[in-house]
């Protein structure tokens, strides 16, 4: 198990470095002057030169890259040009919204998707199965911002149970903060839950015809018991892979959903930063997102090793 | 009262019958062997007795267990299985849950049999009874060999002290040495525990070794049933006579084998596989699959390379035909020196390989004609008409019709496919043919035919054979000379008759001891 973990950790660090290098190259070292890009074409040459000095663009690219990485390791992401505040503070403030949002969406999609997938697989061919899979098809097809608007119509406009948008900061009213995150989390989670349900159903249907299920039944279990005790854990393996990939889509989804619900989250921060050409802020936010996604992949990989003994390093076979 | 009584059993899938009018009875501690080819309905019969038929199957007739019909209710049937009926299946690779230690899986079977106390010691006792070590209980299935997994399966089947053990092809996926061990184990356990045994196999020898009563099945019906001596000695039905005949290999070695000059020589061939390096950790020493092997094949000679699974014989074959490269040593074919994958293109038509699995070795999306003519790409000088003639001649030589060439692989039986595989190997008119277990994936009834065909082709085309196998009966039927391989080395060599009479090396003796008694 230890070599497996070491290998995954090394892969994690390598991925982060590669992502950082790509981000740096795309935004910084490619032809064209970042300072001029930030200031726009009408800026005076003096202003551009001043900004170049302020951003440290005179130094060679490799040195700048190393300085950038070193700075981030100490928590220094640079100064946002448009907001005049440290990028790290801006991101931290926004993460307090986006992180709970993504986490809640993930939990909700698992809580909805897996049981429905299991139910559909156990009742394969029944009305419940057909109905659930049609719903799942719909869930995959309909975009999350549309879900968001429908949810607002029902729960805020008609029933008046939850706020239609905006965010109450945590330190002001934690209950209010949670309430303002409920609808966005569901809007984000539903399409993911639909995908999860489909994957879980397929995996479990495959598992039901596996030889070890027949063995388990031969031992004296009914089909249902055999699937529950031996099938589900095996079927979770493909589901885990999808979960890891889904997190990246969830994060991308927050950008849209935060805009629909007027949430001051990381997604909206990036959205504004891009439209205001704040490259420093964009760069820092991208790295934070990359860390989040890669970290999820790492967790998934480690879980894989925990669930599947075949992935751990083989003991001597005799 | 009989333990098991089946009357007029019929099984159908969407109205199409696959088993019809099947009767059988089994007294307590009696043994019945069911023999038949794949598709004869013998496995479905076993599943029906255990109440494990797929939901899509329609069952008719009655099955009485101790005089009462099998319960309709799924849970009651499951408990009956758990307490009274043990089952062992064919697939040792996939029949165990890959995510669970085997000890836990055995413990579950004990628990389900109603024993809720002290199953830790019972697991150990069961492991001991099937010949496994106590530490094996903490292993996962992938950490065990095929034979060990089959022992785990048997331990699970025994956990409930069943009155009836159903073994469905329990040894077909195992190599011969392991097969013999598992058969002996089943024999001993059934005797000690006074279990009734329903033993299902396509291997008449295995059935005859274990069961005093035999039932022959073909196409869903019972052809013939009776005591072992009657079935083997005086088979009444044509099909039974054919099965019995096929189980007795005729010896095909040429009386005066034409020993030509050396065609192929290997000098000190070794192949080392490096284990993948782990990050930060030093590379561990690799395994030496082939260890300084030297051998010579003379023109028109048939040489067998025998040894247990994992002894390196297939790796050696891959090196000889140029699919892999030796890490040390050289080989010479005719006058050309090579090391394996550097075999020159001009020589490739001269060396062919016939694979073990006639199902996996054909691309399912290609017409069989396209697969058979594919090696002719090695002979670019042939024009289209000559190519077609070559393929047609070779297909006729293996006893099939050229009309079949436009069909797809799944439309043929295993025996027909192996004939096509042989035609594919011979279409370039090679001088050396390497046959890797050429008949072990085939039903016993067609093995004899394929062996006779190989023998005839060898005489007609003056071929040199290198036969890779662990099946000594097949080897004796086909080879002039035998090389015994063990742990990557050739440990003994000789003519089959002499070697089988006076085996010197312990590996040869082990292989000989694993043979089932002659019919």
TrEMBL record, chain A:
<dbReference type="GO" id="GO:0071916">
    <property type="term" value="F:dipeptide transmembrane transporter activity"/>
</dbReference>
<feature type="transmembrane region" description="Helical">
    <location>
        <begin position="235"/>
        <end position="261"/>
    </location>
</feature>
<feature type="transmembrane region" description="Helical">
    <location>
        <begin position="281"/>
        <end position="307"/>
    </location>
</feature>
<protein>
    <submittedName>
        <fullName>ABC transporter permease</fullName>
    </submittedName>
</protein>
<feature type="domain" description="ABC transmembrane type-1">
    <location>
        <begin position="95"/>
        <end position="299"/>
    </location>
</feature>
<dbReference type="Pfam" id="PF00528">
    <property type="entry name" value="BPD_transp_1"/>
</dbReference>
<comment type="similarity">
    <text>Belongs to the binding-protein-dependent transport system permease family.</text>
</comment>
<feature type="transmembrane region" description="Helical">
    <location>
        <begin position="177"/>
        <end position="197"/>
    </location>
</feature>
<dbReference type="InterPro" id="IPR035906">
    <property type="entry name" value="MetI-like_sf"/>
</dbReference>
<keyword id="KW-1133">Transmembrane helix</keyword>
<keyword id="KW-1003">Cell membrane</keyword>
<keyword id="KW-0472">Membrane</keyword>
<dbReference type="Pfam" id="PF19300">
    <property type="entry name" value="BPD_transp_1_N"/>
</dbReference>
<keyword id="KW-0813">Transport</keyword>
<dbReference type="InterPro" id="IPR000515">
    <property type="entry name" value="MetI-like"/>
</dbReference>
<keyword id="KW-0812">Transmembrane</keyword>
<dbReference type="InterPro" id="IPR045621">
    <property type="entry name" value="BPD_transp_1_N"/>
</dbReference>
<feature type="transmembrane region" description="Helical">
    <location>
        <begin position="97"/>
        <end position="120"/>
    </location>
</feature>
<feature type="transmembrane region" description="Helical">
    <location>
        <begin position="132"/>
        <end position="157"/>
    </location>
</feature>
<dbReference type="GO" id="GO:0005886">
    <property type="term" value="C:plasma membrane"/>
</dbReference>
From TrEMBL, chain B:
<dbReference type="GO" id="GO:0055085">
    <property type="term" value="P:transmembrane transport"/>
</dbReference>
<keyword id="KW-0813">Transport</keyword>
<dbReference type="GO" id="GO:0016887">
    <property type="term" value="F:ATP hydrolysis activity"/>
</dbReference>
<dbReference type="InterPro" id="IPR050319">
    <property type="entry name" value="ABC_transp_ATP-bind"/>
</dbReference>
<feature type="domain" description="ABC transporter">
    <location>
        <begin position="4"/>
        <end position="244"/>
    </location>
</feature>
<keyword id="KW-0547">Nucleotide-binding</keyword>
<protein>
    <submittedName>
        <fullName>ABC transporter ATP-binding protein</fullName>
    </submittedName>
</protein>
<dbReference type="InterPro" id="IPR017871">
    <property type="entry name" value="ABC_transporter-like_CS"/>
</dbReference>
<dbReference type="Pfam" id="PF00005">
    <property type="entry name" value="ABC_tran"/>
</dbReference>
<dbReference type="InterPro" id="IPR027417">
    <property type="entry name" value="P-loop_NTPase"/>
</dbReference>
<dbReference type="InterPro" id="IPR003439">
    <property type="entry name" value="ABC_transporter-like_ATP-bd"/>
</dbReference>
<dbReference type="InterPro" id="IPR003593">
    <property type="entry name" value="AAA+_ATPase"/>
</dbReference>
<feature type="domain" description="ABC transporter">
    <location>
        <begin position="273"/>
        <end position="512"/>
    </location>
</feature>
<dbReference type="GO" id="GO:0005524">
    <property type="term" value="F:ATP binding"/>
</dbReference>
<keyword id="KW-0067">ATP-binding</keyword>
<comment type="similarity">
    <text>Belongs to the ABC transporter superfamily.</text>
</comment>
